[in-house]
Structures are given as structure tokens and as C-alpha cells.
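Researcher: Batch entry, complex prediction.
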Amino acid sequence: MSEIDNLMMAVAEAGGEKGILANEDIAHLAVNEHKILSSNKVEGLEVEAKETLTGIEAKVTVLEGMKIKNPVHLCFGVLHKRGTQKIKMDVRLEKNASASFIAHCVFPNAEKVRHIMDAVVESGEGAEMRYSETHYHGMYGGVVVIPKAVVTVGKNGRYFTDFTLTTGRVGRLEIDYTVTAGEGAVTELTARVFGHARDEINIKEKVVLSGKNSRSIIKTRVAIEDEARAEVTGITEGCAEGARGHVDCMEIVKDNAIAKAIPIVYVTNPLAKVTHEAAIGSVDKKQMETLMAHGLSPEEAVDIIVKGILK
Amino acid sequence: MPLLEINNLTYGTGDKSILDSFALTMEASEIHALLGTNGTGKSTLAYLIMGCEGYKPSSGKIIFDGKVVNDLKIHERAQLGITMAWQEPVRFEGISVKDYITLKNKDVNPSHYLEMVGLHPELYLHRMVDKSLSGGERKRIELASVLALNPKLAVLDEPDSGIDMLSTQDIINVITSFRKNGSSVLLITHREEIALIADKASQLCSGKIICTGTPQEVAEYYKSRQCLVCRDEVCAYV
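Model: C-alpha cells for the complex:
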């Protein structure tokens, strides 16, 4: 079986569609470690990608006014047990452009793998970008994932991200996102992670509402069990008139796991408003009792509640 | 053999007695309305029957279908055929209405049960059972899920209460559906007009049943009595 078949098999196991690379109407970039296995462009989307010693560098541009119909698929994998993959991405959406990106990050056999993502995103005036990243790490827990993104959302732009790591072991995760939202811009950052065994989860997401009437929500859902650790820092700065931000963190803790939530709200303009909510603890007792009154065992009830918040 | 037999049930917190030597018997397929004002122990009784955490009687027996269930956990009682619709149903993130109604039995048709509680399936099946639902919508979905379980006994804790109240006719329709399914219902309510649909009714006051009879008799009693201790509330101390 070829390298790309193996990669796409892992993507399929992680819930992705195996056939996406064959569809000419769908743009994609498939990378195993530091090797670009396949790529496809569509009208309005420019991709310049090159291999480096330890990964790839890619410059992605969505041209002004172009709406990319199908999601752009990014398949990043390390199929070997050991390896390092550094992805440097420079993404630019020009004025009034829009595109959705779906990233599949698969490390199914990882025993000692490092995946480092360093992204700079510039979303222009009126542009809309959706970025969904789903990870599959296998059961060894030997993965270190360090995604870092610095994002600028222009006037009336919209930026949505969704990070999901709920299948297999996490290993060590260090998310560090910073988004600056311009006038009238809307930003939503969502992360869902399920940690097991001795996994370590650190999520730091920051939104700076620098533009008038900008809006944001940071939503984090984490479940941890066994000896896992999680620390979630959600920061929102309201710096302009009419800016509205909200930080919403929920962590479910089982066994000997330890969770920490640090919501930071910082307001420098009296006409801005930022709110936060954080809930950490075991599974909600009333939710449990409700499901048990439907005949579910305590174990089934916990499973449904946890899957629900991570969905 | 009665379906539910509660004998000499006593429960309290600290020095406060909530249920005092409480007794109730229900037959299979019986709709029994339990009337009472706030704080008389109605919801406590529901939690005791269901076996909620922290609700363990200090004395007395709850016998369901010939089996003492005092020491059974909630899900064990549910598996015997007892279930409950909560006064204030909780919300769940990431669980769709469809999945919620079919939690225990994937073979039921969720649309059918939504229609039974007056909701259009096409508008609700794929919504989440979360904060996006109003109080009234959530209550209807709870009732639909309880109907879908086809229980032997459904304890309905004040289905008529809440900010977004269900109408009398909605409740009557739901009770009628339980009746058609052959389920027994313990209907906990403040409202005597709702109780009229029941086969039997009881008046609860200060943790004791003070009157049992036809719904008309009990509703009449409920309306006509005033308590000297609780002022205008119906009470055992009349």
C-alpha cells in the first residue's frame, strides 16, 4: 500500500472522507511528515507549498471576492512511530473572500511524535474563514502537539475555528491562539478535548476585541480521566466601544484527573462588555439522575454526557 | 397486587419532617393525581419513589410490582418500569432531541412522541436538548421521552408548572396517551382542573395524605379548606 493510501486510511479512521483526494472540485494538501504527497487547487485559491527538513511551509491565499464552494482539506500525518512535523502556514483571505478549511491531523502509530503548527492568518475586510481541525493520535499517548496561531480578522470579517481531539490519547497538547478582531468582526473559537491516562492539556486562547462592535466567544469543552491534567486559559480583551465577548469553559473531571480553568477578562473601554463562565467538576448529578431514570446505567450516563459536551 | 404500595414512609432532613408515615397505593394503569401546595412534600415523594441520591427514607417501604425497591438505584428502578418527568428538566449539550427520546430504545419513532406532546418533529428532532430550548419546549420533550419509555409507572412532577407553562389541554393529552399505553401515572400538581383527568386523587399536606377519593371529591376538598396555621393554604391542621 502506498504512503498516501496509508495516510488516507488513517484519515478515514479518524472520521474523514477517504475519497476527497480524488475529487477535482475539492482543494487539498496531503502531507506525511515532511513530504508533500498530494495537492490540488481550485479556482480562487492559491497554494504555494514546499517541503523543509522537518515539515512544510505553505502559503494559502483566497483571492478577493472568491467564495470557495467546497471545504479545503488539509491532511497532516506522521505514520511512523517516531517523527517531527513542523507546519508553517501563512493563510490570507482577501477582501470579501470566504473559505472553509478542514484539517485532519493523524498520528495513528505515534510513540514519539512532535507536531508543531505555526500559523499566521490574515482575514481581510468582509472575509469569512472557517477552520476545523480534528486529531487522531492512536493509543500510545506519545504525541506532542503544539498548535500556535496568530490571527487578524478585518472589518466585518468572520472567523470560526473548531479544534477537536477526542479520539485516542492526547499525549501533550499546547494550544496557543491569539485573535485580533477589527470593527464589526465576529470570532468564535471552540476546542473540545478528551484526555486519558497521563495526558497533559494546555489550552490558551486569546481574543482582542480591538474594533468597534466586534464580537467573540471562546468555548472550551474538556473531559479528563485517570491521571490526566488540563489547564484552560481563556482571555478576552474588550478595547472598543460596543465590543462584546464571552468566555465559556466547561471541564468534566473523573478519577484522579486535575483540571484548572483561568478565564481572564480585560476591559479598557467603558462601552465594551466581556463576560465569562467556567464550570469544573464531576458529571452533573441531575443530568446523571435524569439519564438513569431513563434506564441507563451510571457508566452509560457518564459516557453520553461526556460525548455530548465534546460533540 | 397493587403496582405501587408505599407503607409508613418517613423522610426528613435534619429536624424537619417532610413525609410522615406516608402511605399510598396505586393499581396498574391507574392515573393518580397528588394535589398539594408548595412545600407539602410532593417532589420529595417523587424523588423517593425514583431513588434519587440523598433521598433515602428513615422508615417505611416502597414496593413496586411486588418488590421492595428501597435499596435499588435509580436505573435499577427504571429498569423495573418506574420513570419520572422532572419539574425542571435539565439541559444537555450535544444531545439531539431525537437521540434523547431514543436513549434507551432505538426502535421507537421519536416523531410520533413529539407529535403526542404538541411539537412538530421537523422543527425539533435535530435541535439540541440544551439552553436553546424554552422551559415549555424542554418540558414537552421530557414528557415525550418518558412516553417513549412506555413505563409501568410514570411520576410526573408538576408538568403544569414553569415559566413557559403547558396548557391544561396539553397535559390532558399527555395523560391520555399514557392511559392508552397502559402506563400508570402519579400526577403531581397544584391545579385541581388537571387532577380531574385522574382515576383517583389524593391531597397531600405536611407530608401526609389527608384526603383520597375521586378527583372531583378531592378537588372540592382542596378548594374549600383553609388552614388556620398556614393561613390560606390547605393543611392537615385544619
